[in-house]
Structures are given as structure tokens and as C-alpha cells.
Design brief:
251 residues, alpha+beta, 8 helices, binds coenzyme A
Length: 251
């Protein structure tokens, strides 16, 4: 195991440049083109610097994991967390911050580990640190619109069915859901419209290298659900479901 130290963005002037390789390696091309997320996510580093962390390996002198999160105010039951998932949460957080609203919980944006360090247990450490970040800011619980990482291998399976898939030991089939569950996370509900990418067919061709000769649903590598192509309106639409998950933050 490398010798890892936690570094917060506000203590590392060049944080984004030093960790962007993790982001670039984590998701398929099309996932970098969600209009709402692209408009708002840079706010994390500008407004909420003390909520972003990296795990820095002092031996190789590189960042091996990244955790992004933001504060949020929500006073309704957690069971009512909205269908809009990560997009709703991020926009709400920025707007609340603009209005000076005091947050009461922390929302996860993403956790990414280095492709060279996968299956070494780093993701467990990263979730635990995010819970620490919530505690240090007096926020709780930590909520996360979780993107189940193996769902892309089963894009035609509904998220409801996928969530019910278990291994022989009774734990979730999905790696990332398993991590959350093992750390005490509770799955609340599916947020069916968490992340949306919509653009012209030419753009989808460019991002995927695929041809779309007729209107209909297409399986795109890395996508959790099919992408709907409409040639008449020249639109390709991806609506990603995630799973609202809650981690209590204890003193
Ligand atoms: C999802 C992710 C964070 C997991 O990180 P990781 O460091 O590989 O995970 P860990 O080593 O902590 O292992 C977590 C679990 O996944 C399993 N796992 C990880 N990679 C696996 C693989 N390729 N095949 C099978 N199982 C795998 C591990 O065995 C472990 O399960 P277990 O504890 O039941 O044995 C990482 O794959 C990643 O960064 N992916 C890209 C970004 C992403 O999807 N982030 C999550 C949404 S924001």
C-alpha cells in the first residue's frame, strides 16, 4: 500500500491540474458533455475548496484518488430526495450558497481512484475521508447520488432489477454499491434523471465513434442506460439514473 496523505484543494494551489488525469481516465468521452454539470462543477474548486480532497502518494509523488463534494441544505425527509440527483443537488448547492443559506448536509459529487491502483481498497478510504470532511464541517448525513460502476455492462437491465442483483454472499453485485453498503450506506431511492447529456447526432458520433443510421435506442460503451437517437430532431439524449445513498455522520 502506498504512503497516502490527504490534501485539501485549498492547501494545494495547482490541485486541479495535478488531479485532472484521474478525472480524464474515469469516464467515457460523452460523460464530459453534460450541460448542467459542465456549467456548475467548477464551482466546487472556486467556492467549496475545503470540501475537495486528493490522496497523495508521498512515494510516487502523485495523486492516486480524488474526492469531490459540496455542502447542501435539505430539510425534507431523505426519502424525498429528488429525481434530479446530482444535477439538482449541484445547482441547488450553488444557488443556496449565492443566497447565503446555511447548509446542513454534504453531497458527494464523485470519487475516483487511479486506474493503476484499482482493487487495492482505495475507494473505501476515499468514502471514509468524505465522511470525515462532512464531520469536520459539522454537516451530516453525507448523501450521494451513486453511479453504480458495473451497470454499464448491463445497460438494458432496469436500475430496479440491477439493484436487486446479489452475489452468493448476499452483498450487491455492483462493486461501488458494495463499497457504500459495507461502509454503512443506506440506499434510499433511484434518482432517474440524475445526469443528462443531450446534443446533436454529429456530437454523439464524435464522442463515441459510432454510427447512428436510424432513430432508436443505442448501447454506447460506458453508458448505464441506452442513448436515444432521434434523427428527425437531430438529438441524442442520455438520461442517467443514479441511486440516492445516505451515510450517517457520527461524532
Ligand atoms: C469505482 C471506483 C472508485 C472503485 O475504486 P477501487 O479503488 O478500484 O475500489 P476498491 O479497491 O476499494 O474495491 C472496491 C470493490 O470493488 C471491487 N472491484 C474493483 N474493481 C474491480 C474489477 N475490475 N472487477 C471486479 N471487482 C472489482 C473490489 O474487489 C472491491 O470489492 P470487495 O471489497 O467486495 O472485494 C473506481 O473503479 C473508479 O474510480 N472508477 C471510475 C470512476 C467512478 O466510476 N467513480 C464512482 C462514481 S463517481
Amino acid at each position: 500500500m502506498p504512503n497516502l496523505i490527504r490534501i485539501m484543494t485549498d492547501k494545494e494551489p495547482d490541485f486541479h491540474r495535478k488531479t485532472v488525469h484521474l478525472i480524464n481516465s474515469a469516464f467515457p468521452d460523452f460523460a464530459f458533455h453534460g450541460a448542467v454539470i459542465n456549467k456548475y462543477w467548477r464551482n466546487l474548486y472556486e467556492r467549496f475548496a475545503d470540501y475537495q480532497f486528493g490522496l497523495f502518494d508521498t512515494e510516487s509523488n502523485e495523486y492516486l484518488a480524488l474526492g469531490n463534494s459540496f455542502p447542501l441544505f435539505w430539510n425534507r425527509p431523505l426519502e424525498e430526495l429528488p429525481d434530479g440527483g446530482i444535477e439538482w443537488a449541484l445547482v441547488s448547492s450553488v444557488e443556496q450558497n449565492d443566497h447565503g443559506t446555511q447548509p446542513n448536509l454534504l453531497c458527494a459529487f464523485q470519487i475516483i481512484t487511479s486506474p493503476n491502483m484499482r482493487r487495492a481498497g482505495l475507494s473505501y478510504k476515499a468514502v471514509e475521508i468524505m465522511i470525515d470532511v462532512a464531520r469536520e464541517h459539522g454537516l451530516g448525513p453525507l448523501i450521494a447520488p451513486v453511479r453504480p460502476n458495473r451497470k454499464s455492462e448491463h445497460p438494458r437491465t432496469s436500475m430496479e432489477d440491477y439493484l436487486a442483483w446479489k452475489r452468493n454472499d448476499g452483498l450487491p453485485f455492483d462493486d461501488w454499491l458494495r463499497v457504500h453498503l459495507r461502509l454503512g450506506g443506506r440506499f434510499i431511492r433511484i434518482c432517474p434523471r440524475s445526469f443528462i447529456v443531450e446534443n446533436s447526432i454529429a456530437k454523439w458520433r464524435e464522442w463515441t465513434g459510432m454510427e447512428f443510421p436510424a432513430s432508436g435506442d443505442y448501447l454506447v460503451p460506458g453508458a448505464l442506460v441506452p442513448v436515444t437517437i432521434n434523427l428527425e430532431s437531430d438529438r441524442g439524449t442520455y438520461v442517467e439514473p443514479n441511486v440516492w445513498t445516505v451515510h450517517e455522520v457520527r461524532e
